[in-house]
Inverse folding.
C-alpha cells in the first residue's frame, strides 16, 4: 500500500512542529526571559496611591489636634514614602492661641520625618499678638512638625497691622511665637 505524498508531508510538518515546540520549551526553561536592567528602579519610582481632597491629621501625645493638612490631590511614592501635594492647606494648632494657616500651590510631604516643603506663593497667616493679624509670604517654606518650626532660606515679606518687614531667611517657632530673620532685613513702621 502506497501512501499519498500529501499525507507524508503533513506528518513531516507535524513532527517538525512538535520537535520545534519541544526544543523551544526545553531551552526556555533553562534560560528564562530577563527583565531589562533598571526596570525594578522604574517600578519603585511609580506612585502607589492617588487621593483627591485628601486630609492628613496629626495629634499630640494627649490626643489634641496638632495639624490638619488638606490637599486637592495627593500622590504617594512608596520608595521614598513621600507625598506630592497639589494646593496644600496646612493648619497648625499651637499650644495656646489661634491657629496658623499655611497655603501654597505645591507641597512635598516627608511622612517619616514629619516635614512639609511648600513652594509656589507660600502664605502663612496667624495672629501675633492675639487679635493682631500677621502674614508671611515667601516663594518656598518648610514646616517641621517635630520641632514646630516654620523656616525658609528664601526672601520673605512679613506684614502686620503697623509694619512691613522683608528679609532673606526666616525661622518662626509656632508654640513660643519667636520670629528670627537672618539677613538683609528691612522694615517700614507706620505710627497709628
Amino acid at each position: 500500500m502506497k501512501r499519498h505524498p500529501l499525507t507524508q508531508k503533513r506528518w513531516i510538518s507535524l513532527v517538525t512542529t512538535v520537535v520545534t515546540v519541544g526544543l523551544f520549551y526545553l531551552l526556555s526553561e533553562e534560560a528564562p526571559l530577563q527583565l531589562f536592567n533598571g526596570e525594578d528602579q522604574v517600578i519603585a519610582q511609580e506612585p502607589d496611591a492617588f487621593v483627591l481632597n485628601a486630609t492628613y491629621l496629626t495629634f499630640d501625645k494627649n490626643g489634641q489636634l496638632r495639624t490638619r493638612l488638606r490637599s486637592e490631590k495627593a500622590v504617594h511614592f512608596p520608595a521614598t514614602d513621600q507625598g506630592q501635594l497639589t494646593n496644600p492647606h496646612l493648619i497648625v494648632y499651637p499650644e495656646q492661641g489661634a491657629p496658623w494657616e499655611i497655603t501654597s500651590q505645591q507641597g512635598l510631604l516627608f511622612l517619616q520625618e514629619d516635614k512639609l516643603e511648600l513652594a509656589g506663593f507660600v502664605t502663612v497667616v496667624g495672629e501675633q499678638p492675639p487679635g493682631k493679624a500677621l502674614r508671611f509670604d515667601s516663594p518656598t517654606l518648610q514646616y517641621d512638625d517635630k520641632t514646630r518650626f516654620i523656616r525658609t532660606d528664601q526672601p520673605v515679606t512679613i506684614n502686620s497691622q503697623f509694619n512691613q518687614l522683608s528679609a532673606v531667611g526666616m525661622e518662626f517657632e509656632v508654640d513660643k511665637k519667636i520670629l528670627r530673620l537672618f539677613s538683609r532685613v528691612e522694615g517700614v513702621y507706620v505710627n497709628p
User: Anything to note?
Assistant: The two ends are 123 Å apart (CA to CA).
